[in-house]
Design brief:
- This protein is α+β, with helices and mostly antiparallel strands.
- It folds into two domains: 173 residues, no CATH class; 146 residues, Oxidoreductase, molybdopterin-binding domain (Sulfite Oxidase, Chain A, domain 2, Alpha-Beta Complex), CATH 3.90.420.
- 41% of the residues lie in helices and 17% in strands.
- Helix 1 packs antiparallel against helix 2, helix 2 crosses helix 6 and helix 4 runs antiparallel to helix 5.
- The chain is elongated and about 70 Å long.
């Protein structure tokens, strides 16, 4: 397919706008989902990124004409191109393992977020208005060819990764790499944004558990006496995962009868917290030990939440309060703001 036969100009810009929105949406969902249908979201994210790459030659020709006409005033468009290219390169590098370390995922996410203001500027300054002809049979066939070609390239890349045993061959479907499974001392220590590792005196620390009809404080010794066990994978949005054997107390029995509660909020000594559907309580574990040993300070001592099937930012560390209430679980920011 030659350049002259591909829908250049306005349709290319419209396609790129749709693909960028799709990449941002699927990226956010992939960031949030730790299991189930999250695999398909991640595939969609990869296919959208490859489609952006495939449209690159046509967009570069359009951009060259635009730069000649507009001159120095085009710097936001150049910035958009740079951050999108950075997101694509680091995404492909992380997915193939050619960019080693966890920094590539962080740069990928940062570049994706950085593209948003420039993309909004581009839409407002140079709007691309859809037309009825954009849904013509020819346009739909071209779009289908782009989607199908991108999916084939995605499959080919995955095949090459596994056939050549690149470092990414063993990554989880979320894109995370294994770090310290069944060896808690080798598991990375990370926390969300501005949290820091607190020093906690267990003699003074208490866990407050409250429902509509009851409220009770637990000491560390009381919680450490429980021996409920869960094998679960913590999958950090920083790009790593680790499977561990966690021990502690299941949250469901600890709450007892939650009455008419719709959610359970788990809070940290640092002020951090997440809210869960009340039905999830039976699968949540308040862990005091990992791998048969007490938690380290960096991994949440004295108590951390284990939330199987959820990404790492749901696994609240340094827990000091649990509250069942009437607030819906979704009445919170999709991602913690602090």
């Amino acid at each position: 397919m030659g350049l002259r036969r591909f829908p250049a100009g306005r349709r290319t810009n419209l396609a790129l706008l749709v693909l960028l929105a799709a990449a941002l949406l699927t990226g956010a969902l992939a960031f949030a989902i730790g299991g189930g249908w999250g695999r398909w979201v991640v595939i969609g994210h990869g296919v959208a990124g490859i489609a952006i790459v495939l449209l690159g030659p046509w967009k570069s020709a359009i951009s060259a004409r635009g730069l000649r006409r507009r001159g120095p005033g085009s710097w936001p468009s150049i910035a958009l191109a740079v951050v999108v290219a950075t997101a694509v390169v680091t995404g492909l590098g992380h997915a193939t393992g050619l960019l080693s370390g966890l920094l590539s995922m962080q740069v990928h996410v940062g570049a994706g977020l950085g593209s948003i203001p420039f993309a909004l500027w581009h839409v407002l300054a140079r709007p691309v208005r859809p037309r009825r002809t954009d849904l013509s049979r020819r346009a739909v066939l071209r779009g289908g060819a782009l989607a199908g070609g991108s999916l084939l390239v995605y499959g080919a890349v995955e095949g090459v990764v596994r056939a050549t045993s690149l470092p990414s061959a063993d990554r989880r479907f979320t894109g995370s790499y294994e770090r310290g499974s069944f060896d808690p001392r080798s598991m990375p220590v990370t926390q969300w944004l501005d949290d820091s590792v607190p020093e906690i005196d267990t003699a003074a620390w208490r866990l407050a558990v409250s429902t509509a009809d009851d409220e009770r404080d637990y000491t560390y010794e009381e919680l450490a006496a429980f021996d409920d066990r869960v094998r679960a994978t913590v999958d950090c949005t920083g790009g790593w995962f680790a499977e561990q054997d966690w021990e502690g107390v299941l949250l469901g029995p600890l709450l007892g009868d939650p009455g008419e509660a719709r959610s359970v909020a788990v809070g940290s000594l640092t002020g951090y917290g997440r809210r869960f559907p009340i039905g999830d309580a039976r699968n949540l574990l308040l862990a005091t030990r990992v791998g048969g040993r007490p938690l380290s300070a960096g991994h949440g001592f004295p108590v951390r939440l284990v939330a199987p099937g959820r990404r790492g930012f749901w696994w609240v560390k340094w827990v000091d309060r649990v509250e069942a209430g009437a607030t819906p679980w979704w009445w919170q920011s999709p991602f913690p703001l602090t």
